[in-house]
Design goal:
Layout: H1 5-15, H2 25-28, H3 40-54, E1 58-67, E2 78-81, E3 85-90, E4 93-104, H4 110-127, E5 133-142, E6 150-156, E7 159-165, E8 169-177, E9 198-202, H5 207-218, E10 222-225, H6 236-247, E11 254-257, H7 272-286, E12 292-298, H8 300-303, H9 309-325, E13 331-336, E14 345-346, E15 350-351, H10 359-367
Parallel strand pairs: 9-10, 9-11, 11-12, 12-13
Antiparallel strand pairs: 1-4, 1-5, 2-3, 3-4, 5-8, 6-7, 7-8, 14-15
Helix pairs in contact: 3-4, 6-7
Length: about 375
């Protein structure tokens, strides 16, 4: 199952939610999401409909919705139905969780009124102050009084609460205003055309790769990205074949290795596969050409942050392997601080870390 851009446009018209992060790719690129996402309200309605089709004699007394991750336009997903909850699952992760209480159906219009309320939440949040917003969570209850309300309260810097009700339901919504990524422009140097050095970048969707590409282009470097490819540990032989076939009979002056999975605190992950196993293939294939490699590591190694135990351990293993095997000193290990990027954006609306522009000094020391 997936939602395409046309469906996003249709839902925007239905809900009157004019939030451009759902319908305009160029606008979405300005934020951590990088590309358009499906309306949370649309996904929730589909999830609730999914439950009711299997339970036609039931209706919702209470629902609580938690948006854990955005669901992108054309992203494949499915629903997992449990006794008192529904999950929207994509790539084996829960993007949305809905908890609910049900009761026996007594009014045929009950879901119609619930749908109207959810559409109105989408409209109010999506159009608030004409700035892009994301819903973090909302709760909806059966109404116990006759008082209607519509009130937006600013809780802190860019986090808001919406209290809204109609004739049948009342709701409490938490949403966040999105902050644009750091804007960076490079002016092309007068002597740029004199520099014909070739650069290969891994990690095409990385903000660090985009910054590096734009900066080196301004200096006249010739840039090539390794094509988007999902490296899967289960298909290591296929990954090895693709890498070796791509690198065969090619030579580059510099390689920048920005391949990285989503780094999540307190989550057990095998980072080593990408940080070392795939890197080894690239290193062994290019070392005879004298290609210099920029290998980003992390300053977290010094602090041994327990939240990123597996991430730090994999970087330490990779650094040790490079130090032991790189006899020609082709690889430069750059221990970087946490940088503001799509990976370090949290759903409370903040880019965590230092400005990505501090990368410029590291690049200059590497290419000098």
């Amino acid at each position: 199952m997936k939602i395409n851009l046309k469906a996003n446009l249709n839902f925007s018209k239905l809900s009157k939610d004019k939030n451009k992060i759902h319908i305009n790719e160029n606008f979405a690129k300005k934020f951590f999401i990088k590309k358009t996402i499906s309306h949370g309200a649309n996904l929730v309605l589909k999830m609730l409909n999914f439950y009711l089709r299997k339970n036609k004699n039931k209706q919702f007394k209470k629902i609580e919705v938690i948006f854990k991750k955005p669901t992108y336009t054309n992203e494949e997903f499915n629903f997992e139905l449990k006794k008192n909850s529904i999950n929207l699952v994509s790539n084996k992760e829960n993007n949305i969780k809905i908890f609910f209480k049900i009761e026996k159906k007594n009014k045929s219009t009950q879901f119609v009124n619930l749908k109207k309320l959810i559409l109105e939440i989408s409209r109010i949040v999506g159009n608030h102050q004409n700035k892009p917003s994301l819903i973090l969570q909302f709760k909806i209850f059966r109404k116990k009084n006759h008082i209607n309300q519509k009130k937006v309260i600013k809780l802190k810097k860019n986090i808001y609460s919406l209290k809204y009700s109609n004739s049948f339901y009342t709701s409490d919504t938490l949403f966040v205003k999105l902050k644009e990524k750091e804007k960076i422009r490079f002016v092309k140097k007068n002597n740029a055309n004199r520099n014909k050095k070739k650069v290969l970048l891994f990690g095409k969707n990385s903000d660090l790769a985009a910054y590096t590409s734009n900066y080196l282009k301004s200096l006249g470097f010739r840039i090539k990205f390794f094509p988007n490819y999902y490296f899967d540990r289960k298909n290591f032989k296929t990954a090895k074949f693709k890498l070796e076939a791509f690198l065969k009979d090619k030579s580059f002056d510099y390689i920048f290795y920005y391949i990285s999975p989503k780094i999540e605190p307190y989550k057990k992950k095998n980072y080593k596969f990408l940080y070392l196993d795939i890197f080894k293939i690239i290193y062994n294939q290019t070392k005879n050409c004298g290609t210099k490699i920029f290998y980003p590591s992390t300053k977290y190694i010094q602090y041994k942050n327990p939240a990123f135990k597996d991430y730090i351990a994999s970087k330490i293993i990779a650094e040790k392997w490079i130090t032991h095997n790189d006899k020609e000193k082709l690889v430069s290990i750059m221990r970087l601080p946490q940088l503001r990027s799509s990976q370090t954006y949290n759903l409370l609306g903040f880019y965590e870390g230092s400005k990505i522009s501090i990368l410029k000094n590291k690049l200059n020391s590497f290419i000098k």
